[in-house]
């Protein structure tokens, strides 16, 4: 069991191959397959061509014997004075010729090279028939054999049927083929090495923009640069743009967290100083209790405000698309219980493919604050709509969110005032006055837009959030 676990751990820890190694292996396999098929095709083509050339050469020998031979009156065959090839004169040379003739095979002539060889050439072929065989097994080894039956006609004599055999040992043929195969293997091997080196050079050149991206990212991480600003191929434009977006987002988040902590520390100084002053004074216990209670509540509000501010910017650049109908239904169900006495009717008009690309917490903050504000001010009806914003050649679609009610609405000249932090539309209505400000911060964090106007459908306030396609 331990060995199995250790093997799994080692396999999990094994570093994956680099892109260049993967490409080199794939190119090497493809190159090996291509050169293998090419070598096989060339070998077969050369083999067939060599066999055809051998057959033609043997046929030329037969024609030469026919042209130079003679059958005078009687049973003796006179071969040509000069043989077609000197090898026919050398015993055991591997090149043999036999001529058979006569009705009963009385005529038989063998080239000097056939002396002492038991050649199996005894069958007479019909006139006009030609056979090419090989390599065939014989007593003197494997040979290629061409035989042809002819009718010999001289003057007015009776035609004589002759069968000519010309044979050549396969040794010479195989030496020729083997020499070609050695040459082919050397050239294909050299070509494979050259092509593989060229492929590696091309891969290094082709992957150089990725290495440049890595170097630029290292420069950003080391603080030598603020963003990726090099000239990259079009295929890397989206990658570098997304990396720059991620870098900018991280910088903005770091600055926001620093500002939030600084603001929190600065804001807590005053209530802490008040309580310290009250402790140092000689006031009565009731006054101290009242001061501590009021300042504690103030500190609670400050912390809640700063935490909401920090949370509002904690969205993700790369995230899973979130369905809007499920989130909205959950929020509305809770609000209907809180505002049960008002008997609010909330309606949805949500496109089936409408999605919010961000953190679930940010989506819940957006919808929760907007819908709660609508329930708070509505008389009877609230309408929530979500429409898809599509644009050509974009990575993902945008979305437009609308929340409207049939309440008193917000005058246009008071919109900017209401959206400020800590400002309530009506001081008589309970709340902290930061809900709409949180929504505005979230929208800005996602580079969206927010507008407030009068609802033409219900007559109350209409909040419109737009997140464009990217």
UniProtKB/TrEMBL annotation:
This is histidine kinase. Residues 263-470 form the Histidine kinase domain. Residues 204-255 form the HAMP domain. The chain crosses the membrane at residues 184-205. GO terms for cellular component: plasma membrane. Keywords: ATP-binding, Kinase, Membrane, Nucleotide-binding, Phosphoprotein, Transferase, Transmembrane, Transmembrane helix, Two-component regulatory system. The keyword Signal does not apply. It comes from the Bacteria. SMART domains: HATPase_c. Its EC number is 2.7.13.3. It is found in: Membrane. It catalyses: ATP + protein L-histidine = ADP + protein N-phospho-L-histidine. Its main location: membrane. It is an enzyme of class 2 (transferase). GO terms for molecular function: ATP binding; phosphorelay sensor kinase activity.
